[in-house]
Design goal:
The chain is of the alpha/beta class. The protein contains eight helices and eleven strands. It is 39% helix and 19% strand. A five-stranded parallel beta sheet has the order 2-1-3-4-5, with helices on both faces. Strands 6-7-8-9 form a four-stranded antiparallel beta sheet, with no helix packed on it. A two-stranded antiparallel ribbon has the order 10-11. Strand 4, helix 4 and strand 5 form a beta-alpha-beta unit. Helix 6 packs across helix 7. Keywords: DNA-binding, Phosphoprotein, Two-component regulatory system.
């Protein structure tokens, strides 16, 4: 297990560029943790780019376009929560894995609603962290058969993260888009709450399955003609949910 001073960004690659699997941005202000994380990713053939404060992290996010971000919450200049939301606003397709000592359920739920793809609590297992990061990257690379998906009076562009209903824009959060995308990739398949948590949130130890119920409720309110009597996002009692376009 790894247990968790501001410094400048360290952009020295850990591996020759030609052998690197890609760049992982680490935003962490503890120099000891920076070294640990650099080593973890270097051993798996990733190039680690490290920022010791929020402002530098934002600059590197824009310039490096990393495969994924490992983000601490308590940072100088810009907080991890603010960065998480800003990162998703710039490039919603880059996975963000929060790494923090904060364990409160409310904080985890808030971060996932702000767009974080996963949450790992310090102290952590290097193997678990790497598995979470790689799983988030795989989920993001999973192809969508149609970039623009239509059902009923709804038209969704998953690449641009825009949705229109009867021609009028509807605002969805990052996780609402992810959840809807997974439903469209699994039409008429009964999806349990655990499957949705694992595949959409990537958090197989998530504190409560009520999170799924709340997100489905919000989607219904935005997409269904009559949210109280849904025709697209159906509840399969005792099993989970099913999307019928």
């Amino acid at each position: 297990m790894v247990h968790g001073t501001e410094m400048t960004a360290d952009t020295q690659p850990d591996l020759p560029v030609e052998t690197s699997l890609g760049t992982i941005l680490i935003v962490e202000d503890d120099p000891r943790m920076q070294k640990v994380l650099r080593r973890i990713f270097a051993e798996e053939r990733y190039t680690a780019v490290v920022a010791g404060d929020g402002r530098t992290g934002l600059d590197l996010f824009r310039s490096e376009q990393p495969l994924a971000v490992v983000l601490d919450l308590i940072l100088p200049n810009i907080s991890g929560r603010e960065l998480c939301q800003t990162f998703k606003g710039i490039a919603s397709d880059i996975p963000i894995i929060v790494l923090s000592a904060i364990t409160e359920v409310a904080d985890k739920v808030l971060l996932l609603e702000l767009g974080a793809d996963d949450y790992v609590t310090k102290p952590f297992s290097p193997r678990e962290l790497m598995a979470r990061v790689q799983a988030a990257i795989r989920r993001q690379r999973k192809p969508t058969s149609d970039v623009v998906y239509r059902f009923g009076d709804c038209e969704v562009d998953f690449r641009k993260m825009t949705l229109k209903r009867s021609g009028k824009p509807v605002v969805l959060t990052s996780h609402e888009f992810k959840l809807l995308k997974f439903f469209t990739e699994n039409v008429e398949r009964v999806l349990t709450r655990d499957i949705l948590l694992n595949e959409v949130w990537g958090y197989n130890l998530y504190p409560t399955t009520r999170t799924v119920d709340n997100q489905v409720l919000k989607l219904r309110q935005k997409l269904e003609p009559d949210p109280a009597n849904p025709i697209y996002l159906l509840t399969i009692y005792g099993a989970g949910y099913k999307f019928v376009p």
